[in-house]
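$ run holo --ligand "coenzyme A" --emit tokens
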Amino acid sequence: MARAQTSESACVHSADMGMRPRRRHHALVPRLRREPRSRIVGCASIGQTIRKAWRRGPVRQWWNREAASAFTPARARVRGSCIFAPVLPLRAIFPGKRVALRAPRVSDAPRIVEIRTRSREFLRAWVPVPGPDEFDVDLARARILRDRRDIRADRHYRFCMTLGEDGPVIGRVALTQVFRGIFQNASLGYWVDVEHHGQGFTTEGVTLALDVAFREIGLHRVQAAISPHNAASLAVARKCGLRDEGRAARYLQIDGAWQDHLLLAVTAEDWPAAPR
Ligand SMILES: CC(C)(COP(=O)(O)OP(=O)(O)OC[C@H]1O[C@@H](n2cnc3c(N)ncnc32)[C@H](O)[C@@H]1OP(=O)(O)O)[C@@H](O)C(=O)NCCC(=O)NCCS
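-- output --
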């Protein structure tokens, strides 16, 4: 309150004194919005140790070389000790042969609630206990806004899988828990509308998501945790190139019980189109 009053009175004061309004500032805003925004994706979380070593010299070369060869995503730039990658635009659409991935839109809420509701029993055994925002359109809208903020913040990428580029949403494919720094990893998750399963759509959607992970947002590794009893999901993951890494005891709470899961993963080195 006090701050608002102060700035308001400052404006009045400058107008009274015949000063020019601060137009330069306003003129800059649209230009800044048009410019591609980028974020640090490499060595963002290197700690004091490396930062100190960086000042000493030789690590600078080592870090740049290692970082650039291992993690640099398409269109990224290495500046100093940091790798900058463009922020994924929310309007981006990643088309495949039959399905496409894109960020969820607020207008998707009724459709997402519709397919989630009719798939409730189909999904129950394999996905975490759903929250109320999966079955209520208003809460789903709020959740979509959160999903969009998460994409901009490089935290989670929860995509909608649509039939064609403009078709209805038929499922979700997500890269969540994005870790940067020396891990550059995300967890893969997916589900499809009960009326669209068994037609190869998820395999296509997951392939697109891995392409986004390695080519667009510069991840190095994508992992999935799948119940050993979930044959369809295991088939999808393996078809998409994830390899088995082992079994984790009581790993996730699904359908009210802590259940063992198989861990599968794929790294950029295995992805033919990933930048080297
Ligand atoms: C897992 C899931 C996303 C797969 O979606 P989908 O669109 O049916 O997947 P696809 O059609 O692309 O591929 C399914 C593959 O599983 C295979 N499959 C399906 N049921 C199977 C079973 N009982 N045993 C062995 N393979 C099976 C299919 O044959 C197919 O492989 P193919 O193309 O080589 O024949 C969907 O079943 C689902 O939403 N399940 C519930 C949620 C879930 O499990 N999410 C993953 C959590 S880890």
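-- notes --
The domain at 93-270 is CATH 3.40.630.30 (Aminopeptidase).
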